[in-house]
Amino acid sequence: MAVVLRPVQGTDMDAMFGMLSDPDSRQMAPFVIIDTDTRAEFEAHIEKLKADPSIKLYSMMVAGHFVGAIMTFDGPAGREVFYWIRRIAWGRGLATEAMARILSLDHSRPIHAHVLSTNPRALAVLENCGFVELSRRDAVETPAPDDDDILLVKN
Fold it and tell me: Theoretical Cys-Cys bridge with 71: which of 49, 57, 140, 144, CB 3.0 to 4.6 Å?
């Protein structure tokens, strides 16, 4: 199945908001900092992201269905990439395909990514797309006390 990246649309909001309420998904992506209690606050946050010209935010679509979101942005480490995929799409190679696609759209190099040491699938996605480990430190505010925050880079 081919992953298509397209700009986030209003029709994606149900699925995107649903990812926030999935505890397993949240555990895999604790770097998502969206302090919203309501759907309206969430949608306002997404609109703010979409309005920032330095942020490239896309929906990951397969056969017309939303399977996740992926974005590049200017972060503390420089240009960064982040993705979040719905649980129903885990383990099918879709994240790797989406990552390859976004890297072909955003040619900024170096580009960085963060992953938790307790998320080997996400680490494999990044390594399969040419990222290498740059540093590792204790992750703060994560569910597991043994988590490390791994910073990777692709040159």
Answer: 57
Q: Which of 121, 118, 110 is nearest to 68 (CA)?
A: 121
β-partners of residue 6 are: 59
Structural domains of the chain, with CATH: 3-154 (3.40.630.30)
Q: Which amino acid is at 24?
A: D
At 149 the pLDDT is 84
Instruction: Mention every residue, 6+ apart, whose C-beta is less than 8 A from residue 85.
Output: 60, 67, 68, 94, 95, 98
Q: What is the pLDDT of residue 144?
A: 59
pTM over cut 0.85: yes
Of 21, 124, 7, nearest to 60 (Cα)?
Answer: 7
Separation of alpha carbons 85 and 115, rounded Å: 14
User: Quick one: three-class SS letters along 80-116?
Assistant: EEEEEECHHHCCCCHHHHHHHHHHHHCCCCCEEEEEE
The encoded tokens of residue 33 equal 């900092």
Asked if 125 and 99 touch (Cβ cutoff 8 Å), the reply is yes
